[in-house]
Design goal:
35% of the residues lie in helices and 16% in strands. It is α/β, with parallel strands linked by helices. The chain has two domains: 255 residues, Rossmann fold (3-Layer(aba) Sandwich), CATH 3.40.50; 27 residues. It binds iron/sulfur cluster (SF4). Iron/sulfur cluster binds next to loops. The site of iron/sulfur cluster (SF4) has 12 residues, from loops.
């Protein structure tokens, strides 16, 4: 299979220069390669899209897909995975999607280590509705709903996922397609919850290409299995750098660990558990 075999006839409505193209052009070769080498047959892949400009990506990739409502890619993906553990489920969500309305789902997917992949198109703006601030917009952001400035600092989504127990945490950039391909492949093959925040530039309403080009660098000599190192690198950039600031934005895999997935633990939550009193008693004996 070639990446072009994953094309569709849906007309593309993204603006010229939109960072969504890079994500689309990175995921197709990765899925084609995984299918070709027999690692992950395409028939076992399900793409889940949210609401926002990013959501159209599921129209543009010729694979099984599901459109959800705003903020709900992760619970839908979780249900798909639990219903059929043989499927590999990849969520595409926006920052307004996953970090605002859907933030609780993101936290719990990380905490539970649900074996799905979340790729976040983080353009730091609501592009589809023509330019309102989102949870990752910087405090100096001037937009349609904040014409005199936002004055509220952004969240660092990597820090939230890390604190919530995320077992694979990475950041890419829409002007670096080779790194995106590497990150997507690693994330898809990770057993557990994999999270990739992509700095996806909205060319029309919040063009940060120069801002990022002057500041991004790829992580090197970084051990993603070292929790202290990961925490330090995750905190290196707080998503709030202004144009005159002297900051660096690391890209790559920040953290990775192996631990049991939600699906593996799920049987323990089953209503078929007959000796519930015994299980609770044992838990109390073990931990108190
Ligand atoms: Fe891309 Fe922004 Fe256009 Fe939406 S509005 S398609 S995010 S450039």
């Amino acid at each position: 299979m070639k990446p072009q075999d994953l094309g569709t006839t849906a007309p593309n409505t993204w603006c010229p220069g939109c960072g969504n193209f890079a994500i689309l052009n990175a995921i197709k070769p990765v899925l084609a390669e995984l299918d070709e080498e027999g690692t992950l047959p395409l028939e076992n892949v399900v793409l889940v899209g949210g609401i926002g400009c990013h959501g159209k990506i599921v129209d543009y990739v010729g694979a099984n897909s599901f459109y959800t409502i705003h903020g709900r890619t992760i619970p839908v993906a979780t249900g798909i995975k639990l219903a059929n553990p043989d499927l590999n489920v990849i969520c595409f969500a926006g920052d307004g999607d996953a970090y605002a309305e859907g933030l609780d789902h993101l936290i719990f997917a990380a905490k539970r280590n649900v074996d799905i992949t979340a790729i976040i198109h983080d353009n730091r703006i609501y592009g589809l509705t023509t330019g309102q601030y989102t949870p990752t917009s910087p405090s100096w952001f001037l937009g349609r709903s904040t014409p005199e400035g936002l004055e509220v600092p952004p969240i660092n989504p990597l820090e939230i996922v890390f604190a919530s127990g995320g077992s694979f945490i990475a950041r890419g950039y829409s002007h670096g397609i080779e790194l995106l391909k590497d990150l997507f492949r690693e994330a898809i093959l990770h057993r557990g919850f994999s999270f990739v925040d992509v700095l996806q530039v909205c060319a029309t309403y919040f063009n940060l290409y120069k801002h990022y080009n002057d500041r991004v660098y790829n992580l090197e000599d970084h051990d993603p299995e070292n929790r202290a190192q990961a925490e330090e690198k995750i905190r290196e950039w707080d998503y709030n750098s202004a144009y005159d600031s002297d900051v660096s934005i690391p890209l790559g895999i920040f953290y990775r660990e192996e631990r049991p997935t939600f699906g593996e633990n799920f049987a323990k939550y089953s209503s078929k558990t007959t000796d519930l009193d015994g299980a609770i008693k044992k838990t109390l004996e073990d931990y108190i």
